[in-house]
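Example 3.2
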Amino acid sequence: MFFLIHVLAIIFYLTMIIYACSFFTNATEHLGCKLKLGNNAIGSIFAVFGTSFPETIVPIIAIFGSFISGKNISVGQDIALGAIIGSPFMLSTFALFITGIVLIITKRPKKELNLDYKSIIRHYKYFLIAYPIAILASFISCKYLKIFIIIFLLTFYSFFVYRTLVKSKQNFCENISDDLFFSELLKIKENISCILAQFIISIIALGIFSHFFVKEIEYFSNILNISPIILSLIITPFATELPECINSIIWVKNNKDDLAMTNILGGIVFQAMIPTSIGIAFTPWILNSKILLNSTTVIIFSAIFSLIILTVKKIKLMPLLSAGLFYFGYLIYVFLAQ
């Protein structure tokens, strides 16, 4: 009976995350339009800032929660490391794979995404510069050099945000097909206050329901005797990255491919610079073989995927589906090696 309650709970939280994502994507589009921003900035910055809250807070809680409670700090640091490294892996592989599946389900005549490939390459350039540097920091013992890397990553992300906003202002395009949900539900005129209210409330809802969803995932991992490294590298990121995945499903379904891909890739860029900076600053940042293989897999696939895009100048179905091979291949390896 108790087990059934947890099964129903995880279904309930997942359902609420989906609804919260629907409200969030709707508010994000309207907010971007009000600020006269293009879809690149909407997906890469505003959507990412909202949906990255759950996966960013997990390593922070793991690190400082263990320290404050007096529990095993090394366990908290291990969980934090896994969560930090696992998030870009999840977005780089599984989220792209899901995007490909949605392309199949929607039965488009052309099995490809309709967007500017140059924008996607730009995201990958930032990621492929920053992420390897963050990983290489694990082999550096000099404290001052690590501080320099942290400053570089934070500055580099600020530059990414600035350049994205500048380019977005130059390519502003209104692309909203639905009215603001709060305006419809409350029968009031749409204004910036209403948009911000829906945006903030949906972020809070995403944070709350994602938190409880992670707790349910942890419960099932405990009763199934799953190791902490699998929990932090695979299971927790799967839960915390659900908002990005669901946002992308909603946007691809509505033929807003640029929003879908920039949300995923904007999340990858964010994860490569902000949470990694937290990890380098507040953990020993010593990555074991499973974590190094995870990060290496992400870098290799991202390099291959971006080269394919550069060659064909499009994002077709097969490269998206191939991301699943990297995700499930690593998943099988980790489970067999535990």
